[in-house]
Design brief:
Its main location: membrane. By secondary structure, the protein is mainly alpha-helical. The protein has 3 domains: 66 residues, no CATH class; 192 residues, Growth Hormone, Chain: A (Up-down Bundle); 193 residues, MFS general substrate transporter like domains (Growth Hormone, Chain: A, Up-down Bundle), CATH 1.20.1250. Helix content is 67%, strand content 4%.
Length: 473
């Protein structure tokens, strides 16, 4: 009998004998059927006409919360190590914008070809998110996170050796693969290694990876570039990725049986290849959450991309304009983990998610149309409340996916939605600006935010999510 779980499988060799081959995942309560204690707390299909097993030869999903607490790892350690690896990978993307003019000069690139140094990451997200989900399910979350670091180092090394614009763009495409690996696999890793009542906090820490990567990329790269030049900068970034990945490799314990990497279970001889159903990935709640996430990313990329231009047009210094537009990201360093803690403690997931999305549209509209005191107030409100949304999406989305066995694929859809939102936001906003100016841009961001809020307000969350949060107090 083969027993399936969200993160692995249990093989029942004979009645009374159980072998664990991988991590056990989320599911439903179990009937009492006389099986060993290792697999109690799981649902068995007890319809076995051949009577070879006490509980049949059907599917089984093991509830994550049924695992002993000792099976989980320190949530602070895991989340910090994962976010450090994520920041190192995100640095790979954001090391270019602040030194773009120098790169264009060194490689004789025009504006169109230089834009590919960044847009290739969006293309990677669109085309590779779903395949990465399948890979994460096959090889395990930690293995894919390690692969993300290795691929980032390889891409950065290739870029350091590039002698033409074409090779440099190709190296950026390799780095884009690493970014997708990281974005899909880390939330999956959190749910594998962190106790259920600490997932909110860990998700809040992880949600900082992209914003902190962009911040440090913009701050560190010009200084490093001025000191050691192009090749030296790329080597430094590769070294940072190696260091962060090494810490994760050493101190995040695999739960699939390996010492440093997850041990990938092999199919038994003669056993049919396991197929994964896609049912439950496109339910009403899933589509509503993905729709809200799409709107969020369109709003976010709109103000991040165009607010500095507006503020400089209003006479603000370029440095101050850049600070004003990134202030929400800095404030989110505190608010993102706070939203995770609130989610763990209160269980009011929908209220927190809707509230955070509700302020995004109005705040983005102000950032695109105002250069006075209201600008700073909007930036702070967005940072404190609005940018709690990524944390809530990471917490809520897995809870509405009915097919827990396909969770890595579901995370692929989430990253795909993020990439589409960033692509659409950056593509549509210039047309809006051309048609109606900054007032139209602000109104566009406002409408996107309100549409996203309406979609999230229609999401129906199951009561057990709240009950579990109450039991964890």
């Amino acid at each position: 009998m083969r027993v399936h779980g969200a993160l692995g499988a249990v093989h029942l060799r004979r009645p009374g004998a159980v072998g664990l081959s991988a991590t056990l995942g989320a599911g439903w309560p179990a009937p009492s059927c006389g099986l060993p204690g290792e697999v109690r707390g799981a649902f068995f299909n007890c319809d076995d006409p051949r009577g070879r097993f006490p509980c049949g030869e059907g599917s089984l999903f093991v509830e994550t919360s049924a695992r002993p607490r000792s099976a989980y790892q320190n949530h602070v350690l895991v989340s910090v190590l994962l976010v450090l690896a994520g920041i190192a990978v995100a640095l790979g993307r954001f090391k270019v914008p602040s030194i773009m003019p120098a790169i264009m000069e060194q490689f004789d690139m025009d504006v169109g070809s230089a834009s590919m140094l960044m847009s290739v990451f969006t293309l990677a997200g669109i085309f590779l998110s779903l395949p990465t989900g399948f890979l994460a399910r096959r090889f395990g979350a930690k293995n894919m996170m390690v692969a993300a670091v290795v691929v980032m180092v390889a891409g950065t090394a290739a870029g350091a050796l590039a002698t033409s614009a074409e090779v440099l763009v190709l190296s950026r495409a390799v780095e884009g693969v690493a970014l997708v690996f990281c974005g899909v696999s880390a939330p999956f890793a959190i749910r594998a290694y962190v106790a259920p009542d600490k997932v909110g906090f860990a998700s809040g820490i992880w949600a900082l990876w992209f914003s902190l990567g962009s911040f440090f990329g913009g701050v560190l790269t010009p200084t490093v570039f001025g000191a050691v030049g192009f090749q030296g900068t790329w080597c430094v970034m590769a070294g940072i990725a190696l260091a962060a990945g090494g810490l994760m490799l050493l101190f995040v314990r695999p739960v699939g049986g390996g010492r440093f990497l997850e041990r990938v279970p092999r199919a038994q001889d003669g056993a049919p290849r396991e197929k994964m159903g896609m049912a439950g990935l496109f339910g009403r709640n899933v589509l509503l959450v993905l729709g809200g996430f799409l709107m969020f990313n369109m709003v976010l990329i709109s103000f991040l991309s165009f607010s500095p231009t507006f503020l400089q047009g209003e006479g603000m210094d370029a440095t101050l304009a850049g600070f004003a537009s990134t202030l929400p990201m800095l404030v989110a360093v505190a608010s993102s983990p706070l939203f995770g803690v609130l989610a763990d403690k209160t269980g009011r997931l929908k209220a927190l998610m809707v509230a955070s999305m509700l302020v995004m549209g109005p705040c983005a509209a102000v950032l695109l149309t105002t250069a006075g005191p209201a600008l700073w107030a909007a930036a702070l409100v967005m940072g404190v409340v609005g940018l709690g949304a990524p944390t809530m999406f990471l917490i809520v989305y897995p809870s509405v996916v009915a097919n827990k066995d396909a969770m890595p694929i579901a995370m692929g859809f989430l990253v795909l939605t993020q990439s589409l939102g960033q692509f659409l936001g950056s593509s549509i906003m210039p047309a809006v600006l051309g048609a109606g100016g900054w007032a139209a841009a602000g109104a566009f961001a406002l409408v996107l935010g309100l549409v996203g809020t309406a979609l999230l307000a229609l999401v129906r969350l199951e009561a057990p999510a709240k009950d579990a949060a109450q039991r964890s107090k």
